[in-house]
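Practice set, problem 2.
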Amino acid sequence: MYQQVIIVGNLGSDPEMRFTPSGVPVTSFSVAVNRRWTDSNGEPREKTTWFRVTAWRRLAELCNQYLSKGRLVLVEGEVDASAWLDNQGNPRATLELTARKVQFLGGRGDKGTTPSAPGEGEEFISDDMPF
């Protein structure tokens, strides 16, 4: 079976790159996706859903180089949900997305860009998934 998820949101933290024991680069970062609506009483509402994103190989290197906290991105990939109980016994859950494609959104003047960063709408696709 095949699944594909596309999210658009802002990085909640700077990317963190590490390497597997065999030297494969892996970059992780969080993305906040905001949903806004008006409730039945006419009051504006907002809900933020957090995704933990992992990018591999060349895509990991590019994300680590060009992304930073606050940057708007589109991420396409496969999602996995994990649930657990925290130290106080409260249920917790996370959505983890393995990136296949990351598109850097916004212009060069947006928070998190550098003079050498790819241009607006630049995207990188990785067909070299770790599994």
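Problem 2, part (b): a different protein.
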Amino acid sequence: RDYSDSIPKPMIPLGHQPILRHVMQWYSDYGHDEFVLCLGYKANVIKDFFLNTRPQTFSDCVVTQGGQDVKLLGDTVKDWSITLLDTGIWRNIGERLWAAKDHVRNEKMFLANYSDGLTNVDLDDVIAKFEASDKIGCFLAVRAPLTYHLADIAEDGRVREFRTTETSEIWINGGYFVFRPEIFDYMRDGEELVVEPFKRLIDDNMLMAYKHEGFWRSMDTLRDWQSLEDMVEKGDMPWNRRVTAEKIRRSMVMAAS
């Protein structure tokens, strides 16, 4: 399915909820319930979702009196604070983060995310290691999800080594970040976050990476979406700390009966 013309990428559904909400629930499971959403393309779609979607849509509930009375079981979103910030359509990641600076600049540190990928990394450990450092920025480093073979070639064309990406030391940006407010001192108007600002951080030895060998998946292609959708349908969701695979399977059997 191609959703690109009708909804923004973070609103592409996985199961019965958009990937954005999967990401937000993951943060909430670690106790982080204040969100600033930097909206761009089709901002109205995201606003409509959070303004008009009923809580029982994503919560276990008991329905009585023909649906007139609904009791939520373990409602996980009632304490969420969500700031919907329209940052414009033609903005890059750095510009969107800059637009949100007044909402986070008084925090000791804050978390940031591309909102199009899922992981099972231990967020508490990421934060603890960053907090123990003197760094200003930290990003999640993950293995490149590629099946290419890499060739090390000398200037004369001689092949020195041929190896797979799995055995290489190639790490990529996983789209999960932790920052101190000083990050804004390294940013300039119009710059992409991970280009010029990150170079300045590197020059000052103020950027660190948290290497994660576990589950990580970005939803960049139709194949990525199909893979994640299959995982949701099977109840195999490594990023979900609350719902076990067995519970999901039982729910699916009930729905089919």
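Answer key, part (b): The first strand starts at residue 13 and ends at 14. Residues 9-256 form a domain with the Spore Coat Polysaccharide Biosynthesis Protein SpsA; Chain A fold (CATH 3.90.550.10).
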